[in-house]
Write a structure and sequence with these properties.
about 725 residues, Nucleotidyltransferase, domain 5, seven-stranded antiparallel beta sheet, disordered C terminus
C-alpha cells in the first residue's frame, strides 16, 4: 500500500512505497521510512544541491514472446547515505517509482539532488518515459552521460570510474558484490527472497560508498567530474596553475592550437591508436617458447621524453625533402604500395584505396592507388615496411618539434613516481590507486576531440546536430581551462607506433604478435631491446638536463628498493605454447616451471589462457577446456581455424558460456502476460525498455582474411623462398 502525507495546505505527497509481496525487512537491511524524511530535511546542503550520496538501480528480467525480445523491471532501489547511516528505498512498479520521485522533489524544496546510476544508459531506457526530462547530455546516441529533470539529475558512475561494479568494489574495498541467477523469470509480483533483495540493495550500497568518497575528495557533489579523464584534466590544470604563471602558459598554448579547420581535419584524420596485429606467417599455428616484452608506462614515456609539434603552418609539398626534422601532417597518395616484410602496418580504414588491393586482416599489403593522411613519423615507418612507385603529397603542414612544457611533464611524472613508490605500501592504497587511475587517463585526456557534434534526444528519438567547425575551434582556443594542444595527443600514439614498429623492423620475421606496447617473438632478441632501452635512458637524460628534473621522477623505486625507469622494455613470462588467430585473438600456456610457481596466484589449475576481444577470458577458456576434454584433444587444437576449414562452421561458444550480450532497444511499449519461475502469472507492461540478450560467440575467420591467407599460402606452395613468393604482387 502507498502511504501519503497530507501537508498543511492539504497537498498530498506519497511517502515511501513497498509493494505487496516484497519482504520489507531482511536480515541485512532495514529501511526506516520516517527517518528518511527527517534526514532529508536536516542533511548537508549548499545553495544549490543536497550534499549526500544517492544511488539508484533497477533489476530487470528478459523474456521472449512471439519472436519479440522483451524486458520488464521487477524491482527498483534507491540508497541514501547520511553520515554513517544508509537508508534504502525500494519498490516494484514504475507507478511507485513515479510517486517516490515526486516525494523526493517535494522534500527537496528549492534544492537539487544528484543521483548516480552505474551504467545510466541501461536504466535510462526504462525510466525516461516515466518522468519529464529537461536535459539529456550524451556523446553518442543511446549513451547519456547525465539527464536532468526539474530537481533531480541522474549521472553515470560507470563513465566516472571505467570499472564494473564488481571490480570497483574489489579495488576500493567496498561491500562485495553478490550473485544473482538472471535466467530466472521475475516480475513485479514475484516474491523476492532475502538473497534477491540483498543483491539489489548491495549494488546501490556500493555506489553510495563510492560517491561518499568522491564527495570527500571533491568538496561538493557538484564538483565531481563527469568522467575519469575529467579528473586527469583537473589535476593537470591545477598542477600547472600552481607551478607556473598560468596566463603566460595559456597564452603560449593559444598561439599553437589548431584553429584552421583544414589543418584540424588533417590532424583528426592522422590520429590512430596503437599498433595491434598478428604476423600472418604464424596464424593458427602452435608455437613453442614465445618470448614476451612489455613497455613500462609507454604513453606517459612518450609525453615526457619525446618532442611534439608546436605551431603548424601550411607548407609547399614540393619542399618536403627540405623539411627534414620538422613535424609534419600530410595527405599523401601512393602508387603501387607493396609490403616488403610479413608485417602489414597501414590500417585500411584510414586509407582511400582505388584499384587492386590486398588486405591482411584490416591492414594494407598492396594497394594500386592509396591516399591517406599521416604524420612524418608514420612516413618513416612506411619507408621501412613498404616500397612504392611514386608518392605525391597533396597537402602539407609543418611545425617545429619541442618538448612539452615542463609543468605538463612534471604533472605526469608526479603520478608515475607515486604509482611506483606507493604500490604495496599498507595504508597508502587510496593514493596509489588514484595515481594509477590518473596516469592511465593522461593519454585519453590529451587526445580528447575538442569538437563534438551535439547529440539530441526528443520524445524517444535520438538525433545529431553537427557543430560549426570554425566556431568550435575558436571556443576551444578561448576556453578558460585550455592547457594542452590537440596535436600533442595525435603525436602520443604516432610516437608509440613509431617506437614499437622500429623494434619490430629490427627483429623482423620473428615477431609473432604486437599490441600497442608489447611484442611477442620467437627468440629473445635481447640485443634489440637493450639498444632501445639505452636510447630511452638517453632521452630521459636529455629531458632531465633540459628542464633540470631530479632523477627520482624518472627512476622511482618500488617497495623492494628497485629503480623502475620510465619507458623501458620489461621481460614478461615466456609462453611455453602460443597460438594467434588475429588481432586480440590468441591463446597460450606458460612454461611449466613458472605456472607451478604462480598457479595459486593465477587461481587456476589449467595452464591454458585466452584473450579474445568481445568475450570473457574465463568463459572462453572454460568452454574450450570442456570441448578439449570431451573430444580428447588439446585446447590448442580446439582454439583455431584448422578444425573448421569449411567456411560455414567455426568454433561457436554457446550463449550459456560466452557471457556475451547484445542490446535490443525499443521506444515502443508493450503489455502482456508473464509467468515467473514461481508459477505466478500477471500482466506486465513497459512504455520503453532495453533487453539484454545472451548470444553465442563465433570465433569466425572473415572471408577476406580467409581468402588472403589462402592466397599467401598458395603462393608459398608455388615454389621459391617464402619472401620471394609471398611478396610478389604483379598483376598477371
Amino acid at each position: 500500500m502507498i502511504e501519503y502525507l497530507t501537508t498543511s495546505d492539504n497537498f498530498c505527497v506519497p511517502l515511501i512505497s513497498l509493494s505487496e509481496g516484497t519482504d520489507q525487512e531482511t536480515y541485512l537491511f532495514a529501511t526506516n521510512k520516517n527517518n528518511l524524511i527527517k534526514q532529508l530535511q536536516n542533511c548537508k546542503r549548499d545553495k544549490l544541491y543536497i550534499q549526500i550520496p544517492v544511488a539508484f538501480d533497477t533489476e530487470t528480467t528478459n523474456f521472449e514472446q512471439q519472436g519479440m525480445k522483451l524486458a520488464t523491471m521487477y524491482i527498483w532501489q534507491f540508497a541514501f547515505k547520511f553520515e554513517s547511516e544508509i537508508i534504502f528505498v525500494y519498490g516494484r512498479t514504475w507507478r511507485e517509482w513515479e510517486d517516490f520521485v515526486n516525494f523526493l522533489k517535494y522534500n527537496l524544496g528549492k534544492k537539487r539532488l544528484i543521483v548516480y546510476i552505474h551504467n545510466l544508459s541501461f536504466e535510462f531506457h526504462f525510466f525516461y518515459t516515466h518522468t519529464y526530462l529537461t536535459k539529456v547530455f550524451a556523446r553518442k546516441k543511446r549513451h547519456p552521460i547525465y539527464v536532468e529533470t526539474d530537481k533531480i539529475i541522474f549521472k553515470c558512475s560507470y563513465i566516472l570510474t571505467n570499472y564494473s561494479l564488481r571490480k570497483l568494489a574489489e579495488l576500493r574495498g567496498y561491500t562485495s558484490k553478490e550473485e544473482l541467477d538472471y535466467d530466472k523469470i521475475r516480475h513485479w509480483k514475484t516474491v523476492l527472497s532475502n538473497k534477491d533483495l540483498s543483491y539489489a540493495l548491495v549494488d546501490v550500497k556500493i555506489l553510495v560508498e563510492l560517491i561518499d568518497d568522491e564527495i570527500r575528495k571533491n568538496g561538493k557533489i557538484q564538483n565531481i567530474p563527469l568522467t575519469q579523464t575529467g579528473y586527469a584534466r583537473r589535476y593537470c590544470l591545477e598542477y600547472i596553475k600552481e607551478h607556473t604563471n598560468f596566463m603566460t602558459y595559456q597564452s603560449f598554448i593559444r598561439s599553437i592550437v589548431p584553429t584552421d579547420s583544414k589543418l584540424f581535419g588533417m590532424l583528426y584524420q592522422a590520429f590512430a591508436g596503437g599498433f595491434t596485429h598478428a604476423n600472418f606467417k604464424y596464424i593458427d599455428i602452435v608455437l613453442e617458447n614465445v618470448f614476451c616484452r612489455d613497455r613500462t608506462s609507454f604513453y606517459p614515456y612518450q609525453m615526457c621524453c619525446k618532442k611534439f609539434p608546436m605551431r603548424f603552418l601550411a607548407a609547399n609539398p614540393n619542399h618536403f625533402q627540405l623539411l627534414t626534422g620538422k613535424a609534419m601532417v600530410m595527405e599523401c597518395e601512393f602508387i603501387n604500395l607493396k609490403a616488403t616484410t610479413s608485417h602489414s602496418i597501414l590500417s585500411e580504414h584510414k586509407c582511400m584505396i582505388k584499384g587492386d588491393k590486398i588486405i591482411d586482416n584490416g591492414r594494407v599489403r598492396f594497394a594500386e592507388n592509396l591516399t591517406t593522411t599521416i604524420t612524418d613519423l608514420d612516413y618513416d615507418t612506411i619507408e621501412k615496411f613498404y616500397t612504392y612507385d611514386t608518392m605525391n603529397i597533396n597537402l602539407l603542414y609543418v611545425a617545429d618539434y619541442d618538448y612539452l612544457p615542463k609543468e605538463f611533464i612534471m604533472a605526469i611524472l608526479e603520478l608515475y613516481k607515486n604509482k611506483t613508490t606507493l604500490k604495496g605500501i599498507i595504508g597508502r592504497e587510496e593514493e596509489y590507486l588514484r595515481s594509477k587511475e590518473l596516469i592511465n587517463s593522461m593519454y585519453g585526456m590529451s587526445v580528447t576531440n575538442p569538437l563534438n557534434d551535439e547529440i539530441t534526444f526528443d520524445e524517444g528519438l535520438w538525433g545529431l546536430e553537427e557543430i560549426n567547425t570554425e566556431e568550435g575551434l575558436q571556443k576551444y582556443k578561448n576556453s578558460i581551462k585550455l592547457f594542452s594542444a590537440y596535436q600533442w595527443g595525435v603525436w602520443v600514439t604516432a610516437w608509440a607506433r613509431h617506437d614499437l614498429l622500429m623494434d619490430v623492423y629490427k627483429i623482423g620475421e620473428d615477431v609473432v604478435y604486437c599490441d600497442t606496447d608489447s611484442i611477442k617473438s620467437l627468440n629473445p632478441h635481447d640485443e634489440v631491446f637493450e639498444k632501445t632501452d639505452k636510447q630511452v635512458l638517453n632521452n630521459i637524460q636529455d629531458v632531465m638536463k633540459r628542464y633540470n628534473i631530479k632523477k627520482e621522477y624518472f627512476f622511482p623505486k618500488n617497495i623492494d628498493g628497485e629503480e623502475m625507469p620510465l619507458g623501458v622494455w620489461d621481460k614478461e613470462p615466456t609462453y611455453g605454447l602460443f597460438k594467434v588467430l588475429g588481432a586480440k585473438r590468441y591463446c597460450f600456456s606458460y612454461e611449466d616451471s613458472y605456472f607451478e610457481k604462480k598457479k595459486e596466484k593465477l587461481k587456476t589449475n589449467d595452464n591454458f589462457f585466452t584473450t579474445v576481444a568481445g568475450v570473457s577470458k574465463k568463459a572462453l577458456k572454460n568452454y574450450i577446456i570442456k570441448l578439449a576434454n570431451d573430444s580428447n584433444l588439446s585446447p590448442f587444437d580446439i582454439f583455431g581455424y584448422e578444425l573448421y576449414k569449411n567456411k560455414e562452421h567455426y568454433l561457436v561458444v554457446p550463449k550459456e558460456y560466452s557471457e556475451k550480450l547484445t542490446s535490443h532497444y525499443s521506444e515502443q511499449g508493450f503489455k502482456t502476460l508473464l509467468t515467473d519461475y514461481q508459477g505466478v502469472t500477471v500482466n506486465v507492461s513497459e512504455t520503453s525498455f532495453i533487453c539484454l540478450e545472451k548470444i553465442p560467440f563465433e570465433l569466425k575467420l572473415s572471408n577476406d582474411f580467409s581468402d588472403f591467407l589462402e592466397f599467401m599460402f598458395t603462393e608459398k606452395e608455388g615454389g621459391g623462398s617464402f619472401n620471394e613468393k609471398r611478396f610478389k604482387f604483379s598483376k598477371e
